[in-house]
Amino acid sequence: MPGINQSPSPVDINATLDQLERAVRWSEAFQLVFVKCNHPMEQELWHHALLERLHDMRVLNLVLEQPIVSLLDEITARWDQVAPPQAVCVSHLEESINLQRETSPVLGRLNHDRDLLRRAVPATLLVWLPDFALDCVARGAPDFWAWRSGVYEFPTNRALWQMESARALTPKISQDFSLPLQDKQQEIARVSALLRSARALPHQDTRGQETIAHLTTRLALLYCSLGQWDKAQRLFQDTLTVYQQLHDQQGIASAYHNLGILAEVRGAYEEALEWYRCSLALQEELDDRAGLANSYHQL
Questions:
Q1: Which CATH number does the domain housing residue 197 bear?
Q2: Residue 293 pLDDT
Q3: What angle do CA 263, 268, 271 make, to 5 degrees?
Q4: What number of other Cβ atoms are within 10 A of residue 15's Cβ?
Q5: Of 104, 129, 154, which one is at a domain's C-terminal end?
Q6: Which residues form the TPR repeats (predicted)?
Q7: pTM of the prediction?
Q8: Are both 291 and 169 inside the same structural domain?
Q9: What Rg do the C-alpha atoms of the chain give, in angstroms?
């Protein structure tokens, strides 16, 4: 559609890379820089592009493959005293934040160790994070966050978001419910990240809104599989709102049905009956035989 930016322009990307390169090259002391990038594939791409620009400098590239408690310990363990780094790039710190959010131990340590970190790293510290993790840092390590020299952003590419969302919607419901606990938590983190990326996109067409509804439904079902009913209900309500905005009667009927199942599981039988009746009424209007059969079965 005219006037809608479908993906970040190369000019915008290069401008951000220019700013980051200058921030590193012009600094001879500690400075804290955050780089916001929501999509993992894009983060890897732009991270590599920045390292290419800084090829003539000593850069400690710290990729955190596993959750950590102390960023200071991770950096000092790799610090070269003979040829000290002129910059430190940290990625995947969100893996240490995902589940406990702003109460994550790593954030408490960042706040506590901030003076030690500043003395130990007399160079630019670049921390790459998605937006949810930046929010957690601001709340969970406010004193550390206050030291930031800047926050630079690489906007999400819509085509990549659609592609990744399609992958996330491939598994069947039965597969999600049979996943081990750790795999369920990883899927929750992945789908949640995609939904956060969607909110960062400037515009959403009908297809994008439908994808958001499908992702939200899958996230709700994952929480159902963990018995986290309150979170699941909020997400099913969010799905219903999206379908109502789209005037998607089939989607609305499906959301009613899911809310009915959730109410039934929780023992709220009168509420469940009301949701099932709402779903049944819409399915009768749509002459949806399969939907009618499901609603009659639940009733």
A1: 1.25.40.10
A2: 60
A3: 70
A4: 12
A5: 154
A6: 253-286
A7: 0.62
A8: yes
A9: 23
Tens-digit pLDDT profile for residues 236-290: 999 999 899 989 888 888 888 888 888 878 788 888 888 888 887 877 777 766 6
Full residue range of the structural domain in which residue 124 is found: 10-154
Strands of 18-154 (E only): list them. Answer: 31-37, 59-63, 87-91, 124-129, 148-154
Are 145 and 204 contained in the same domain? no
> Residue 22 has which token pair?
């200058």
Scored b (16 or more CB within 10 A) or e, 179-204 reads eeeeebeebbebbbbbbbbbeebeeb
In a domain, 3, yes or no: no
SS3 170: coil
Residue 277 CB coordination number (10 Å): 14
Residue type, 291: G
CA 236-99-209 angle, to 5 degrees, is: 35
- Digit-coded pLDDT (tens) for 118-141: 999 999 999 999 888 888 899 999
Residue pair 243/251 in contact (Cβ under 8 Å)? The answer is: yes
- Shared domain for 150 and 190, answered yes or no, is no
Q: Specify whether 122 is located in the same domain as 186.
A: no
14, 149: one domain: yes
> Tokens for 279?
């779903």
Q: Kindly compute the dihedral angle of the four CA atoms of residues 193, 194, 195, 196, in this order, to the nearest 10 degrees.
A: 50
Residue 4 counted as domain residue: no
Q: Are residues 148 and 255 in the same domain?
A: no
Residues 160-173: pLDDT tens digits?
555 555 655 666 66
